[in-house]
Design a protein that fits this description.
Two copies of one chain form a homodimer. The radius of gyration of chain A is 23 Å and the shape is globular. By secondary structure, chain A is α/β, with parallel strands linked by helices. In chain A, the strands form three sheets. Chain A has an eight-stranded mixed beta sheet, sandwiched between helices. The longest helix of chain A is centred in the C-terminal third of the chain and has 30 residues. Chain A folds into two domains: 170 residues, Alpha-Beta Complex (Aspartate Aminotransferase, domain 1); 243 residues, Type I PLP-dependent aspartate aminotransferase-like (Major domain) (Aspartate Aminotransferase, domain 2, 3-Layer(aba) Sandwich). In chain A, strand 6, helix 9 and strand 7 form a beta-alpha-beta unit. Chain A starts with a helix and ends with a helix. Chain A is built from 15 helices and 13 strands. In chain A, 41% of the residues lie in helices and 13% in strands. Chains A and B meet through helix 5, helix 7, helix 11 and helix 12 of A and helix 5, helix 7, helix 11 and helix 12 of B.
Chain lengths: 438, 438
């Protein structure tokens, strides 16, 4: 299977764009042969889903035994976690997710099984009821959200669901283009921005200190503008010795005199079990009170037994970090396998760039303009499912048709090696076709 | 403490309204003495909360051991319940809650930890997005809901939260006044009705077959009218040999040619653990598709491990019924204790009426008009907390100020005996004061 690498040796250091038409045609023929060989293998591989592997899930199996029928199921204030009550979470869960979010427990509300749901509810409340007594967004009409791109497809989908206009903000290694953000928030119709500030989805970038400080210092025209700070990968490092650090946004907002500017979301979805974790919002007290105005009508309380289960299993921040190190040991070789294949096969060819994240769940690949859809389709033809091209942009429209999200977490290292090899052949082939068509 | 019963013997058969002013004054003096004695005891009792007692919660402790770290945590289709996915619930959970709801599993969506949350989300979707492609209720403006009274305070609270006008519909033993319902639904602004059709909150009434059939045959002017059928107490019987039966509404709606007329809600909140149960909606396929349009943006899926936990613990409908019989054994003596005190102390006095439910969580007491608030305040003064008077009506306003909800589930039988005795003294005293003031 690796035989074809040999054939390419001669060309590997030459940029495709510097090749002659003849060279490109020869290369195309060679790549088509490789592609046919791969296709004949009838592979069935998947690099599309940002979900933990079975090995990672097994790390949390102890959670199944941590609450037993013989245990006292009261929380530390004596409340019976088996019964109704405690709207905003048991104290020890607030402390645990407070530590994870780097905020005081009294700035935390514990929610149900996923932060995505909390974000949706938050948008629904802002739309239908408004922010802190201000007019409902739906009534104001014509409202807009800033969307750093590439970004998380589900953020964009729910924003579209609520009929909110989305504006692309380009990302760099330092975070969103803050000049643009500062300019756009002068428009009172701009009500929010989606941020995955640490190990961003899909690039794995972490916002720089300067970026965070500029966010905290924003002076939006709309008093009901909020930063939706989805800190989904706060403790999801790949390396012990090479971690990104993110300034704590609530603290920065307070220092900048904007304490109410941000909603910070977190969850244990990729810490314990996705779908069976606990989620939280961290925000100023005024914002949390606003959250509670709807919560009090929406629920008597979230699943306290699952809160207790998480606290008794992880105990504290050290427990969480120790656990995340085990996740990293499983994830690291997968990221490195994909990155190695990309390095070996595509370096110097000028047909793609990719990120090398220190954490999170994704690698972002940027192909030549206009090639992403074709590459993803080609990979599918060869039995490798990638995230749909365009998914990382609002309305599913990548204006350059170049971003592809690679999710290395779920497959085995062996499957990833195979899938990555398929991917690079597809990248090469589509790139050659594009250059020949120019 | 029971001494005062003796004093009253002479008067007990005489209606208060037939007493002379002198008799009432003598009685008042006697009751004030009794009240002072009770108050001096410094009681602290609570008949306000419709929540299971600790003994009831203990019935479900086996659930804590039913998923172990050594178990296979895949559902019957092989999906790993520890990971993302399965938007609408694992098949075996749909079957279990389908059986509980008396509908086909393919008419079920499994939700998170409480049906209250599902109802709120449903209202939010109807308000913000509309029903099955029709104009959003919020855009239509001026919309109204029918509210059988007395009813469940949290239904009314969330309806008020969304700014929906509420219209009282009187309840009888057969259910809501269907003449009124049929009349009101001619108004296209009337979009829904709240029903707790079995062992209703707070009266414990079960809708008659005729009522259910009239619901199913409704021809509302609004095509986006929906019956919100909160079947919260479907299997919550107090007696094995004296159970209420409720016609299955989805089936009746289909037969009547109105398959999309109803949303049916259920949960295991008072079956397993309140707050840590699983909830479901049963509805026509068209309605469920409509639910999924928002669900797919709102969540990747609900807590499948908790779904699995419930299925493995209860197994099937027989398991549920067997479990509910144990609940009944604990609840029955409590209901009977309160009812006995009411019978012994208030029968024939013409100062109150009360329901004698065969299931559910509440007894409804109707005092003389204009007395409920005073009775609840008096009871509080003597250390007995009752549900706030008016809570069972929209906007907290009981037009007759006469309905009081009694919740016998949580206290011990002994505490209930004491609390009920306090309650009847308060009823008597406030009634005498009212009659004297007339």
């Amino acid at each position: 299977m690796l035989a074809y690498l040999q054939h390419e040796e001669d060309m590997i250091m030459k940029k495709y764009s510097e090749m002659s038409r003849e060279e490109l045609l020869t290369l195309k023929e060679e790549l088509e042969k490789q592609f046919a060989e791969i296709k004949a293998q009838g592979l069935s591989l998947d690099m599309s889903r940002g979900k933990p592997s079975i090995d990672q899930l097994n790390l949390s199996m102890g959670m199944m035994d941590v609450l037993k029928s013989t245990d006292d199921l009261r929380c530390e204030t004596g409340v019976d976690c088996r019964n109704y009550g405690v709207l905003d979470g048991i104290p020890e869960a607030k402390r645990l997710l407070g530590e994870m979010s780097e905020v005081d427990p009294d700035k935390i509300i514990i929610y149900g099984n996923s932060s995505l749901n909390v974000m949706f509810d938050t948008l629904a409340r802002c739309m239908g009821t408004g922010v802190m007594g201000m007019e409902a967004w739906a009534k104001q009409g014509g409202i807009k959200f800033l969307c750093p791109v590439p970004g998380y497809d589900r953020h964009f989908k729910m924003t579209e669901y609520f009929g909110i206009e989305m504006i692309n903000i380009p990302m760099s290694e330092d975070g969103p283009d803050m000049d643009m953000v500062e300019e756009y928030v002068k428009d009172p119709k701009v009500k929010g921005i989606w941020c995955v500030p640490k190990y961003s989805n899909p690039q794995g970038y972490t916002y720089s200190d300067a970026t965070v400080k500029r966010f905290a210092a924003l002076k939006p025209a709309a008093k009901d503008f909020r930063i939706f700070w989805d800190n989904a990968y706060s403790i999801h490092h790949l390396y012990d010795d090479n971690q990104d650090f993110l300034l704590e946004i609530l603290d920065e907002c307070e220092k900048a005199g904007n304490p109410d500017l941000v909603y910070k979301f977190t969850s244990t979805s990729k810490v314990s079990f996705p779908g069976s974790g606990i989620a939280a919002v961290a925000a100023s007290k005024a914002n949390l009170e606003d959250f509670k105005t709807s919560m009090v009508c929406q629920t008597i309380g979230h699943d306290k037994l699952n809160q207790l289960r998480h606290v008794r299993f992880f105990k504290d921040l050290n427990g969480l970090h120790e656990h995340m190190r085990k996740h990293a040991e499983i994830l690291r070789p997968k990221f490195e396998m994909v990155l190695n294949v990309l390095d070996q096969e595509l370096s110097g060819l000028g047909i793609g760039e990719w990120t090398k994240p220190h954490g999170g769940y994704f690698i972002a690949f940027d192909s030549l303009e206009g090639c992403a859809k074709a590459i993803v389709a080609k990979a599918k033809e060869a039995g490798v499912v990638m995230t749909g091209a365009g998914a990382t942009y609002p309305y599913g429209k990548d204006p350059k048709d170049s971003n592809i999200r690679i999710a290395p977490s779920f497959p085995t290292v062996e499957d990833l090696a195979a899938a990555a090899k398929v991917f690079v052949v597809c990248v090469k082939l589509v790139s050659v076709e594009k250059l020949l068509a120019e």
